[in-house]
Design a protein that fits this description.
Blueprint (H helix, E strand, L loop, with lengths): L1 H13 L4 H35 L3 H14 L8 E4 L8 E4 L4 E5 L4 E6 L19 E5 L2 E5 L2 H6 L3 E2 L10 E4 L2 E4 L12 E4 L20 E3 L23 E3 L101 E3 L23 E3 L49 E4 L22 E4 L21 E3 L1
Parallel strand pairs: 6-10, 10-11, 11-12, 13-14, 15-16, 16-17
Antiparallel strand pairs: 1-2, 2-3, 3-4, 5-6, 5-7, 8-9
Helix pairs in contact: 2-3
Length: 476
């Protein structure tokens, strides 16, 4: 009987599900978790330097790999290397126990043991660019992957533009793109991609095609594209863009992308991945027929300039910017200039701590009655020229958070704010301001301006109070 009990006790301790086996598994899982946590901590420790030194993705991942190799916990690792052919830069670590970990910019994960298969499965395979040939067939510019297909179309064919980077050159005092099809711009009314093509650059691709009306890009594979600067610049008759095939995850530049597309009545950018975009300046400027524009899904955390981003979008009555991260933006000049139909702008979430220029930011927003700039940090701003000029409908304006000690230009800053009756500028430091010309001109209802001890009237101040109800200044 005792032998039987002893056998049961030994089995309980050493069997497949015994106490010792469970203890070993628990110890193993704890060790795996420690590796995982250490890899995450290494990445977090690099973040301050990454931000301060503005490392690109590859530099960051190279530093990450170096730090892992120096870490005591991974000195005896079997392998620490970057994997080839992955969509994201991926570091593979195989520990001395044979446990595999993958590290990307976004996450650290345990992948199993080295004896198991670890196929690389990116969200979508990177498509190697093939040839890109265009032919003008009738009034349609068609794109193919082979010269034979382009020639078989029976239209006028152009050179292979695979890998080409287009620019706009000043020729005969006229700035125009150097795309091969621009010579036939007057005849191009439609664009169609017949074959699936994978360009690397789309900057200026359709710039200045002023007769262009429709674009179908459903077959364009844009996963490799980093630059869309000026892509549809000055396409004045463009009514429709099918952006269903757009994959913008690697795009860094969207500046001037839809500038002066004044016939566009709708534009779906809700699927745009903008997390890598640094340049959004003049992006929608002049899209005057748009009555709606949904940019609520935009990730703007890397954007550095939003100059004239929505300028002259005269048809927009509202725009939701509540998700915008502007912490890296340095230029907001003319951002909403000429948005004459917008009635309300809630910018209470805007981080303007790095912005240096706000010239004409809200100029000619004539229908604006509700503007929240109460949280603006203007400590680095040097120019506020025409910032609130011609805001006819604004009755109250809270600029109590403004730090103006770096500002040198306040020309026409509140010019044409004809409904304002009181303006509290008691926190303004204007000792460095050199130009206050027409600063309060046409303030028809303006009765009181409060100023503080750091107020100094600039030497250049012509027409400063012209056509104001009063020029009375009350010192707090």
């Amino acid at each position: 009987m005792l032998l039987i009990l002893a056998g049961i006790s030994i089995a309980t301790l050493t069997g497949p599900n015994g106490v010792l086996e469970k203890a070993n598994k628990a110890k193993e899982e704890m060790k795996k978790a420690q590796y995982l946590e250490e890899l995450r901590v290494i990445g977090l420790g690099l973040q301050p330097d990454r931000t301060m030194e503005n490392w690109d993705n590859q530099t960051y991942m190279n530093k990450y790999q170096d730090e892992i190799q120096r870490d005591d916990m991974f000195l005896d690792a079997k392998e620490i290397k970057q994997l080839p052919n992955t969509e994201e830069i991926t570091i593979q670590v195989i520990t001395v126990e044979g446990w595999v970990y993958w590290i990307t910019e976004e996450k650290v994960e345990y992948k199993g043991t080295e004896d198991e298969q670890h196929p690389i499965e990116p969200e979508e395979p990177v498509i190697k660019p093939t040839g890109i040939y265009a032919a003008l067939v009738g009034n349609t510019l068609k794109f193919y992957t082979t010269q034979e297909a382009a020639e078989a179309s029976g239209g006028k064919t152009y050179e292979n533009v695979k890998g080409k980077i287009f620019t706009r050159d000043n020729t005969d005092n006229v700035e125009k793109p150097n795309t091969p099809w621009f010579a036939d711009a007057d005849n191009i009314t439609a664009v169609e991609f017949v074959d699936e093509v994978a360009p690397e650059y789309l900057g200026y691709y359709f710039s200045d095609l002023k007769s262009l009306e429709t674009v179908n890009m459903e077959k364009v594979k844009t996963i490799n594209v980093t630059n869309m600067y000026g892509m549809f610049l000055n396409c004045e008759k463009l009514r429709e863009i099918n952006t269903k095939g757009f994959d913008t995850r690697n795009v860094e530049n969207m500046g001037w992308m839809f500038l002066n597309c004044k016939s566009l009545t709708s534009l779906d950018v809700t699927m745009f991945d903008t997390k890598k975009v640094t340049n959004m300046e003049v992006m929608f400027n002049g899209c005057s027929s748009l009555t709606q524009l949904d940019v609520s899904s935009f990730d703007t955390s890397n954007a550095t300039t939003m100059r004239s981003m929505f300028a002259n979008c005269t048809g927009l009555s509202e725009i939701n910017l509540s998700n915008f991260n502007t912490s890296n933006v340095t230029n907001m000049a003319t951002m909403f200039h000429g948005c004459s139909a917008i009635r309300k702008l809630d910018l209470s979430n805007f981080d303007t701590s790095k912005v240096t220029i706000m010239d004409s930011m809200f100029n000619l927003c004539m229908s604006l009655t509700d503007l929240d700039v109460s949280s603006f940090n203007t400590s680095n701003v040097t120019s506020m020229k025409s910032m609130f000029s011609n805001l006819y409908g604004i009755r109250t304006l809270d600029v109590s958070s403004f730090n103006t000690d770096q500002v040198i230009n306040m020309y026409k800053m509140f010019n044409g704010c004809s409904s304002l009756t009181i303006l509290d500028l008691s926190n303004f430091d204007t000792r460095n301001v050199t130009d206050m010309t027409s600063m309060f001109q046409y303030g028809l209802d303006l009765k009181t301006i409060y100023i503080g001890p750091n107020w100094k009237t600039a030497s250049k101040n012509t027409n400063m109070f012209l056509d104001c109800a009063t020029s009375k200044l009350t010192l707090k």
